[in-house]
Prior knowledge:
Blueprint: H1 2-20, E1 49-59, E2 62-69, E3 72-79, E4 88-91, E5 95-102, E6 107-114, E7 119-120
Parallel strand pairs: 3-6
Antiparallel strand pairs: 1-2, 1-4, 2-3, 4-7, 5-6
Amino acid sequence: MRLPLLAALLTIAPVTICLAQMPTGQSPMGQLPSGHPPIGQTAPAAATHTGTVLETIPASSYVYIHVNGDAGDQWLAAPAIELKNGSTIRWPEGMLMANYHSKTLDRTFEKVFFIGGVEVVPAK
């Protein structure tokens, strides 16, 4: 029971800090579609997953990322970032949304993880 609470707190902490530092009336990411969970601007230091970008779909101020990672093929939703197919990224734990329908894309994702951000791993 404590682990989900800790994960939730770690997920919303970057957003809270970002919003607290912004002038009143501004949003760090513009307007998100209704039902979209809050997301932060940068990847938390505890990026625990690694994978290769297969495809990206820009959607306003965020991006859907199809990645083949340590947990297999999956979709991520993160703040907008330019990524090239084949690049390696790291990301933190996220919030799983099953059968999530994106009104922006008019597409339903069987599973998508909403995350605070991704970090590109430099090529060796």
